[in-house]
Amino acid sequence: MMVISTLWIFWLSLTPLIDRDATRFHLPFAKLWAENSFLYFRPYFAFYDLNMLNLNYLYMLVFKLGLPDQFTKIIHASFLIAGGYLIFKYFKDKYGFNWGALSFIFYITIPIHQRLSSEVYVDLGLLFFSTLAIIYFIKWIESDFMKRNYFFISAIGAGLSFGTKYNGMIIVFFLTLFIGLTIAREKKDDKLALRSMLIYASIILICASPWLLRNFINSGNPFFPLFNSIIPSNIEMPANLVDGTVGETMSRIINGKDSIFSLFMLPFRVFFEGVDHDFLKFDGKLNPFLILLLPFLFWHKYADKQRRKINIYLFALFLIIFLVTLYSNSIRVRYFIPVIPILIILNIEALRNIFKHRSKYTPILFYLLSFSFILYNINYSAFLSSNLHLSGYNPFNSESRNVYMKKYLRLHDFFEYINDKTPEDSVIYEAFTGGRGYYVNRTFYSDPYSLDRYLLELAKNGVSKDNYYKHFQNLPNSELKATHLLIKPNSFVHTFININKNENDPEDIQNNKKLQGFIKFIDSLKILKTQNDIYLFEL
Questions:
Q1: Under 8 Å between Cβ of 55 and 75
Q2: With 80 as the cut, is the pLDDT of residue 345 above it?
């Protein structure tokens, strides 16, 4: 079962590179970085190009070495297998091979992990480094705080997780606090606790320092794009679409998407209601047994008091990180992926509690819950295979790959047209089509936000056709001049009207007047290609 699960993960990593975030910024940046330097970034795309980039650095090496870009996806999936091995080895050494194998299968087959194995994101790298930090944090406590190498490995894992994605900042922060908490409670030595926290935090900052230094050099803010109100940067960001925007949790209440009670139930709903690629459904699927097994963690008294203490620490760590991430960020399943290793560890401990409980029915309950957990993941595997259209795809056949790309890569025909029919020095301005610039072998300009805030701001001000021309002649945060426009005009118009809806103007008369400059501008352009309401214009 372990071998089959591993092969399935690698099979998912052989699917073509069509996922949104990969083709929007991870791969385009890695490719450009390979052609330029460590400090290279696009000022107009700084929101993503200046970030924590451990995995993007590895992706860059693929291009630098001239390897097929498919290796970027294989690298990403490999971090899942590596994290599974850490969990396997921990439980194998502690409870034996069978428990290690069960933890490995649980870990790598969770639905969100399977989906991410088919995508070139960075979340599985964050998962691996978080797993490393958590396991060696536990091993350090188990050694009665004597094994300093465990402490240092945990700190390095935490630092690398922070250097992979800013979401790692939350787990890094609370792990540092728990380092001090555990020493203070178990050793009754506050000075040692404080000193250990400072050492742990220093190692984390050293591991993340290349990116913090790079961001500071390029923007003036080592944490860009975070904390701009505290540490001003010299990067000019586009204006918010709506003045006085609020966080996603409050937005869900204001817009009537969720009641206060349903938001109170979010910590449970994310385990049951998740749907891939649906932001209102948390953009990802978990396994509900991850949380259903937790009550068994406290089913009976522990004979091993140290085990009980460690499980309580882990449960508290999970709960704090999970709730802080859930309610302080956009609600995406992959944003709190660092707590999943903690959940897996607690799930195995809970199942072991059931298995050891002296009752004639508990073996049945143990096998029923374990089988149900795995069956849920297998069922998702079948769904994912269908959703990715894998039945007719052969990753080792170039013709099969080309057919797949033509059918399922959005804007494939536009990319081919741009690469074949436009001058090499062209600058393609993209708006409202998804921003997938990886396959465009031309300079590609877009708002890093999914909607084009520059054009929406121009429309909000009701500017003339000439002002739109000026915008494309002098693109913000760059010295570029756009030569072509790739846009879905209807999406732009509908988005503008929806954002600027006025109850006193139910017919949208004022909004339509403000759009006249944009419509005249579009009508004056030469159409090169159109398909499915998407247009490529020559400017």
A1: yes
A2: yes
- Token pair for residue 362? 């508990």
Give 189-197 contacts, CB < 8 A, sequence gap 24+: 196/151
Q: What is the 3-state secondary structure (H, E, C) of 199-261?
A: HHHHHHHHHHHHHHHHHHHHHCCCCCCCCCCCCCCCCCCCCCCCCCCCCHHHHHHHCCCCCHH
Residue 385: its pLDDT value, please? 96
Rounded to an integer, the average pLDDT of 150-173 is 96
Kindly report the pTM of this predicted structure: 0.94
Closest CA to 176 of 209, 203, 213: 203
Q: 321 exposed, middle or buried (CB, 10 Å; 0-12, 13-18, 19+)?
A: buried
Quote the DSSP letter at residue 422. S
Q: What confidence tier does 254 reach under pLDDT thresholds 50, 70, 90?
A: very low
Contacts of 77 (CB under 8 A, 6+ apart): 9, 10, 12, 13, 117, 118, 124
For 477-525, the pLDDT digits (tens) are 999 999 999 999 999 999 999 988 888 888 889 999 999 999 999 999 9
Residue 68 class from Cβ within 10 Å (0-12 exposed, 13-18 middle, 19+ buried)? exposed
Question: Is the CB of residue 267 less than 8 Å from the CB of residue 322?
Answer: yes
Cα 178 from Cα 175, distance rounded (Å): 5
The whole-angstrom distance between residue 85's C-alpha and the CA centroid of its chain comes to 22
Instruction: Check pLDDT > 60 for residue 226.
Output: yes
Q: What would you report as the CA-atom Rg of the chain, rounded to the nearest whole angstrom?
A: 25
Q: Tell how far CA 395 is from the center of its chain.
A: 25
Pairing of strands 443-445, 427-431: parallel
| Model pLDDT, residue 23 | 94
Confidence of residue 246 (pLDDT cuts 50, 70, 90): very low
Q: Could you count the other beta carbons within 10 Å of the beta carbon of residue 452?
A: 24
On whether the CB atoms of residues 468 and 457 are closer than 8 A, the answer is no
Whether 80 and 104 have beta carbons less than 8 Å apart is answered as no
| Strand-pair category, 526-531 with 534-538 | antiparallel
Under 8 Å CB-to-CB from 415, ≥6 apart: which residues?
409, 439, 440
Q: What pLDDT digit, counting tens, does each position of 89-126 carry?
A: 999 999 999 999 999 999 999 999 999 999 999 999 99
| CA distance to 157, 212, 262, 342, per residue, from 163 (Å) | 10, 9, 34, 20
What pLDDT is recorded for position 303?
A: 67
**CA angle at 200 for the pair 198 and 202, rounded to the nearest 5°:** 65
Determine the 3-state secondary structure of 301 from DSSP.
coil
Express as a percent the part of the chain with pLDDT over 70: 96
Question: Bridge partners of 429?
Answer: 445, 485
